[in-house]
Design brief:
heterodimer, A: mainly alpha, 13 helices, about 0% strand, globular, B: mainly alpha, 12 helices, transmembrane helix (chain A), transmembrane (chain A), ABC-2_transporter-like (chain A), ABC-2 type transport system permease protein (chain A), membrane (chain A)
């Protein structure tokens, strides 16, 4: 086993997981649609809201939709490769994690390849589609440098979300059921990270930069691209560096995960 | 089994459902905190879009904010993420035991779902309390509206439970039901008017939403409570709920009759 790199292990396990999911045809198509419906209703909501009210926190639809698209593309980069983290809870509770510990592969790698999240493909479809459309319509003069920054920002955002979810996985070793917490993270990010986050007031905004670092997922880098860094109560250089938060949050989340894992206790006999 | 015994069995299923929610206390607490945060943010969003503006489409800021808060709480009680154990039971073969029980399967599942719903009620109460603290709640315009909205809430719950049950039944055909459930959950979150009230929807969208059962779940009770729908119109909306309850019960019966012949018991 030792001669296999972890990337190779990942590919093998993930392919098996995908094959398992593709067995249920109807489910495959409806789940794909589910991904689109989940995120699509949010876009529809923003469209109806801003169609009626014009501006929110001084931002118009083209700007909000651009943040939404960046967020969704980032989300796809988390959920396609790492979405199975969602099931950690269940595995810890049912004691299936015993099996993970017995196998000669990194436990984290086994967790992320546990089950392929089909819904993720719907997210990816809508996310990258929306990014192409709303990126085009956003008030940004695109240059190669800006496109490069956009790519870094989207990848960084994906890593932030992965980091947050990995942290929750660590928590599930001691808390048994973290399902609500996870749903909370997921639905808060879905529902609220598209807004100009500064509109919730300074204290809430700082909380979104630290406690629950949702601001790094798309809002902060988007202000750089949209030329709106003056809206943000942070120094411009710091806002510009926001894509770097991705690796930092992931490293923190992962170290918490490895620290908590030894505290796993097998349920039942 | 006599009727009295059946009622007792049904009540037993309901209790089991409630217990299945209440046993994960940590989960329940985070659920409540989550709902509170979401209610607070939703209130903030609506206050910000209105910021000093007068009524839009005849709806003032107070009403829109109260709607957002109440609808979010109602939605979280009506549409939990894991609302039925039926799909799991079909997948792992437990359905065989369920079918041999003296109480019909539909009633078992219905009882269990009702229990889950009751167990989640305190959660909704938490959300409402937070909204009240923030001054986002308003009282109904009168006793009649208040009473009617209560009736409409029960109607909404029935419609929601019937819809949930019908969607869960799909598992008899597909085994994996994650997909249909997700489409249903998010489709209905928007179509029930819990994200945005029907008042603000463009004409074409509103017209299509009015033909679907989802608006009966959240929009009908909340808009009656807030006095946005009054008098004959309000009664008509409750009438529509009743029609949906009858239609969906018929559909459930039909689906179940066919599903019975599709039962495949998995596992040895």
């Amino acid at each position: 086993m030792a001669e296999q790199t972890w990337l190779r292990q990942y590919v093998i396990l993930e392919r098996a997981a995908l094959r398992a999911q593709l067995q249920y045809r109807v489910n495959f198509w409806t789940t794909l649609m589910g991904g689109v419906a989940y995120q699509g209703t949010q876009l529809l909501f923003l469209g109806v809201l801003l169609g009626k009210f014009g501006l929110i926190g001084g931002w118009g639809f083209s700007e909000v939709a651009f943040v939404f698209a960046m967020r969704l593309a980032s989300h796809a980069l988390y959920v396609v490769p790492f979405g199975a983290l969602m099931f950690t809870d269940e595995m810890v509770r049912d004691g299936e994690f015993d099996r993970v510990l017995l196998r000669p592969v990194n436990p984290f790698l086994q967790l992320v390849t546990r089950r392929f999240q089909l819904m993720a493909l719907g997210d990816a479809l809508l996310g990258f589609g929306a990014l192409a459309i709303f990126g085009w319509q956003a008030p940004v003069d695109w240059t190669p440098a800006k496109i490069g920054y956009l790519i870094l920002a989207v990848v960084g955002g994906g890593l932030v979300e992965t980091g947050i979810q990995t942290f929750f996985c660590g928590l599930s070793f001691v808390a048994t059921s973290t399902f609500s917490l996870r749903i909370f993270a997921d639905s808060s990010i879905t529902q609220f990270s598209g807004y100009p986050l500064t509109m919730f007031g300074r204290a809430t905004f700082y909380a979104f930069c630290t406690l629950f670092p949702m601001a790094f997922i798309s809002f902060l880098p988007a202000t750089v691209l949209l030329g709106r860094t003056s809206d943000v109560p942070l120094p411009t250089w710091l806002t510009t560096l926001s894509p770097l938060a991705g690796p930092v949050v992931l490293a923190l989340g992962y170290s918490f995960f490895t620290k908590m894992m030894p505290r796993y206790t097998s349920p039942g006999s | 089994m006599s009727t009295a015994e059946q009622v007792r069995a049904f009540r037993g299923m309901t209790r089991a459902g409630t217990r299945s929610v209440l046993i994960y206390r940590g989960d329940l607490i985070t659920g409540a905190v989550t709902l509170v945060i979401q209610v607070v943010l939703a209130i903030a969003v609506w206050r910000i879009v209105y910021s000093g503006r007068g009524p839009v489409d005849g709806v003032d800021a107070r009403t829109a904010v109260a709607y957002a808060a109440i609808a979010a709480c109602l939605q979280s009680v009506l549409l939990p993420w894991q609302f039925s154990s039926l799909p799991m039971r079909i997948r792992n073969g437990q359905i065989a035991t369920d079918l041999t029980r003296p109480l019909g399967l539909i009633w078992q599942v219905f009882g269990q779902n009702l229990g889950v719903l009751l167990g989640r009620l305190p959660l909704g109460a938490f959300g409402l309390a937070a909204a009240a603290v923030l001054g986002a709640l308003t009282l109904p315009p009168g006793w009649a509206a208040g009473l009617l909205s209560l009736v409409a809430t029960v109607g909404g719950v029935l419609v929601a439970m019937l819809c949930n049950l019908i969607v869960s039944m799909v598992t008899f055909w597909t085994f994996e039901v994650g997909g249909p459930l997700i489409v249903y959950r998010f489709g209905s979150a928007f179509l029930s008017g819990s994200l945005i009230p029907l008042w603000f929807m463009p004409g074409w969208l509103r017209a299509s939403v009015e033909w679907l059962p989802f608006q009966a779940q959240v929009y009908t009770p909340v808009s009656i409570y807030l006095g946005q729908t009054r008098g004959g119109q309000a009664l008509a909306l409750v009438g529509v709920q009743l029609v949906w309850v009858v239609l969906l019960t018929g559909l459930l019966e039909l689906v179940w009759r066919r599903a019975r012949y599709r039962v495949v018991v998995q596992g040895g």
